[in-house]
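Researcher: First entry.
Model:
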Amino acid sequence: MALHEQQHIGRNGQASAFRWSILLNSALSVGQLMVGTAFGSLALVGDAVHNLGDVAGLGLGWGAEGLATRPPTERFTYGFGRTTQLAALANGVLIAMASAVVIVEGIQRLLQPEPVVSGPVAWAAAAGIAVNLFSARLFGHGHHHDLNRRAAVAHLLSDALVSVAVLVSALLVGLTGWLWLDALTGIGVGLAIALTAVQLMRDALRVMLDAVPPHIQIRQVRDLLQTLPGVVDVHHVHIWCPSTTQVALTAHLRRNSDPAKDLALLHRAKAALREVGVDHATLQLEPADSELNPI
């Protein structure tokens, strides 16, 4: 199967994952809000708010992935890959705002507990576990080196854990009658949401500031290029993410080989870089006796 065909299938699969996750989590959020409000569970309302953050983030991520596939223009010569990073950052901000609302409401509930009907709350929390685990599975295993998709899966899995906490809380409230436990769980949910938001915003800001992606070891890349036949020095190495799905590199290679072999050297270097996760490499070859002036 040709590479472009594989990429087309991958994009279709990811689009389907985003679409179904949005639909399922939208329905879940509405249901949990209704049940949480009707039966007095702040913890479940917090879970619903977290799910709504997931829906917004998934929508942003899906739209950003579509923009990232648009070809470059004369003005935007790098294309629109940065939109995926902006979507991840916006998602983190939305989740942080939601966490603040849940925490404040939880503190108020601790001071003035309200009655909770645990049965419907427990069933709604169980539904949250099932929906979020299923939605995360839709993305398969191809999300690990993609911040945008990894953010979506991380949110879905974290919300499944939040639903577990809400389920346990509802069962304990039903058994003990401790109404404050729901409010305390709601505060815990808010703190968990805040932690997710901080981690996501941190990762998004790192890639927007052109940091070396965490799954790439720059020393390993230098050593790899240094071991290529004829290469005597590697300098001016820069590695960054033009989008959440791509890794780019520029580097200067000083070589003592015959210039007629330069094309073979470039092909070998780019093939080696692809093996360690660098998708797009721009390499400048220099003669071994050239003056080294690193920046």
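Researcher: Second entry.
Model:
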Amino acid sequence: MTGRQARLSTRTVRAMAAAACAALALTACGSTKDTASGGGGKGGDGKVGVIVPLLTSPFWQSYNDYVPKMAKAESVDALKTVNSNSDSAQQITDINNQLNQGVHGLVVAPLDSAAIAAGLDQADRKGVPVVAVDVAPEKGKVAMVVRADNVAYGTRACEYLGKQQSSGKVVQIMGDLASVNGRERSEAFRTCMKQKYPKVKVLEIPAKWESDTAASKLDTLLNSNPDIKGIYMQAGGVYLAPTLQTLKSKGMLKKAGTSGHITIVSNDGIPQEFDAIRKGEIDATLSQPADAYAKYGMYYIKAAMAGKAFKPGPTDHDSTIVKLPSGTLEDQLPTPLVTKANVDDKKLWGNTVNAAK
């Protein structure tokens, strides 16, 4: 979420969302049962609106490129994607606009885990099923959440860094804590380090998925902590370039295997991260499946419009559907660790993304 984009505070967004939906009746979260009436298309047919959170990150650019291809593969009549431009209030407006256009289904990547409930309630009032991608809503009805295990992101990043640097200072550049993704990755990394690597001191940068915020705060942190040994970037799509630029400007960007190298692990699996691994600038990333997000977002919205329901358990695509505390179902897609040893694997979407365009 790069640039100085106009952003409302979480409190303001939630207040606006509550006002917008004051007259709407709240419904139970997480049900995947078919509704007898409403906007869902018969047999899974009908227009589908697709809302992306932003297009300033290579990850979301890739997801956006995959959407029309995966919609065609799943026989979904998807409209042109709508970009909420990192603005949670705008995302609620985008949802309402799509509903007013008569869509029969929505695939949404929420910006704010709580504020998105206002849009979900609007969709539920109209009987339009919603599939959430990447972020699990705290409240509101969705047919399925298509997402990676974000607790595993933080834990696996911790384990990788801890094996390389079992003592000293490491930094985690966090995402937006208004998002469940940012909270889960941050807490999992912090908890893992405390339990498994007690000699490691974790320094934290709340960066809100903003590249300029990450660069500025990392620069300040390095001035007082030039002895850091590791960095965990919660989103390579927005943090990779500013992190490498900041380290380079301070003469701290050393190639892997050389004296003074700072071990860096990331999340996303974008081509730019793979190139950085090949160059020895960073060491690893956890590949967040942009292609599978698009594919199964389309798959589940078609199923939801046809009235199909799902249950917790293993799937036929190497993932597991789990039931969240809210009652919502989440398909947790696999996220392989990418290092120098497997960075050229053609099965990784970051090596095949151009084919989606």
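Model: Note on the second entry: Residues 180-196 form the longest helix (17 residues).
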